Amino acid sequence: MIVGVVGAGVMGSDVAQNLASCSHDVILMDHSVKALDSARKKIERARKLGSFHRKGQSGGTAALDAIERIRFVSDYAALAEVDYLIENVTERWEIKKPVYEVIDSICKDSCIFAVNTSVIPITKAASVTKRADRVIGIHFMNPVPLKPTVEVIRGYHTSEETIQRTDEMLRSMGKSYVLVQDSPGFVSNRVLMLTINEAIFLLMEQVSTAADIDRLFRECFGHTMGPLETADLIGLDTIYYSIDNLYQEFGDSKYRPCPLLKKMVDAGLHGMKSGEGFYNYND
């Protein structure tokens, strides 16, 4: 099976890496040649470090062969041959919507579209296409190759066949999943984005420091990472777009983005990927 991956950012490159390490031929598409070059270097670096696929994952090929399974392209036309497509562009509807209009006209009728999104409703994405029954949500967790479980979202029109084919593909990647119904933010991010946003309010109000907020979550609740560390990993721009989408979708003030979050995004402090967020990664 040939899998198309649209978007060569943090998530898209990880998804492509995970797929290739599990014997899938992958077409990684992004209009930005710079993004494709960065993705290639990131995947090659992972190969050299021996972290190409999750420890203990079955079915993975040798990393040296896996890197050769990925084609890096900047033209949508290359997606005409894919059997399954995973879209990973930024969490802004005005950017996602045109993508679905284009791929729906290019991809073959049998191709399934998986929306890799944190908050955007799957039914909304499906409404742009002529294949609503073949559109499903897959919320991959970061970093993709190391996370064994994903959140799968059934849109209003998603068919049982689409769920079955998605089940087969995820199992081939060594992943299990939890199937949920369509709602902005689904389960994980309805909770996570509120937690992160409230932690940023606490920091802005000088109730505590970033390090101590995260320490409380790690040491008191057993979390691997605190909310502000998690925000830096995901990307503060993604966090802002996600919480703002929830605010727009629900019209509920509890989702109002923290002003400090917006200020940091405007300043280019996006977390790990920019070198600085709530913590400094330039050392």
TrEMBL record:
Keyword Oxidoreductase: yes
Organism encoding this protein: Paenibacillus cellulosilyticus
Residue numbers binding NAD(+): 7-12, 30, 91, 96, 118, 142, 273
Domain (3-hydroxyacyl-CoA dehydrogenase C-terminal): residue spans on this chain: 185-281
Protein's UniProt name: 3-hydroxybutyryl-CoA dehydrogenase
Residues with site note (Important for catalytic activity): 139
GO molecular function terms listed in the Swiss-Prot or TrEMBL record: 3-hydroxybutyryl-CoA dehydrogenase activity; NAD+ binding
Functional pathway: Lipid metabolism; butanoate metabolism
Keywords: NAD, Oxidoreductase
Gene Ontology biological-process entries: fatty acid beta-oxidation
Stretches assigned to the 3-hydroxyacyl-CoA dehydrogenase NAD binding domain: 3-182
Family indicated by similarity: Belongs to the 3-hydroxyacyl-CoA dehydrogenase family.
The keyword NAD is annotated on this UniProt entry: yes
